Amino acid sequence: MALSGPAAVHPEEVKDSPAVRGNLFLQNKEYQEALRAFQKALRRQPEAPELHYNAGLAYAGLGRYQEALASFQEAVRLSPTWGQALTHLAAAHFKLKQYPEAEAVLKRALSHHPEDPENHYLLGLTYGKTGRHQAAREAFAQALRLKPDHQPARKNLGMAYLKLERWEEAGEAFRQAALLKPQDPEAHLGLCAYYLKKGDRQAAAREYQKLEELDKDLARQLADFVRH
Q1: N or C: which terminal CB in the chain sees fewer CB atoms within 10 Å?
Q2: Domain 1-8+15-98 annotated CATH 2.40.160.10
Q3: Environment class of residue 46 by beta-carbon count within 10 Å: exposed (0-12), middle (13-18) or buried (19+)?
């Protein structure tokens, strides 16, 4: 999930600021160094929500989602309607497979920021993980109404249509996703599944060839699934 970057620091923090250094490390994906810097900054300013938020981004970059969750929770406690913090809190719950908690946070975020396509997209993913594919379809469609070029939402809309056995709509969603991002193997995987369902073996073979060029492991998984 591609979410937003670090929060800005206040002007008075700039001089000899570990927070500024942390942001630079974060932008360069040097997550361990970023974390150290934000922890130092938090010793000076433990009530600064942007520092807890940025520490959460560093933890998430390191794959330490339980600690990221705690940091985002603290950021939200200090700034209850902050959209970015709510989104990342929900994403941390999602990474930890805490889907009811993710759903609750996303609905809270949308009550404050209903025009944020990312929250609708994440809500769609959460619905999909809990088997509510019609609700997922609606959430992805809303994300796309707000941001028509949101490629992950377009691709996952196709996945929702597959689950709902709405084949033509699935195929169209995957075609658009592949146009938006031709190098996305999952878009070609979806098209391959669509064409196999339609019985168009030539088109399926064409998409399989693209998939194999982009992600051999994913292509092998599809081939094994089809054989069995």
Answers
A1: C
A2: no
A3: exposed
Q: How far is CA 61 from the centre of its chain?
A: 13
Smallest CA-to-CA distance from 155 within 138, 167, 172 is with 172
pLDDT tens for residues 16-68? 689 999 999 999 999 999 999 999 999 999 999 999 999 999 999 999 999 99
- Amino acid at site 228: H
Domain ranges of the chain: 1-8+15-98, 115-228
Rounded to whole angstroms, what are the CA distances from 54 to 3, 64, 86, 104, 108? Answer: 13, 14, 13, 22, 21
Summarised one tens digit per residue, pLDDT across range 111-153 is 999 999 999 999 999 999 999 999 999 999 999 999 999 999 9
Other CB atoms within a 10 A radius of the CB of residue 134 amount to: 11
Using DSSP's 3-state secondary structure scheme, residue 38 falls into: helix
- Residue among 152, 65, 68 nearest 117 (CA): 152
Q: What whole-number distance in Å separates Cα of residue 137 and Cα of residue 39? A: 40
Residue type at position 105? V
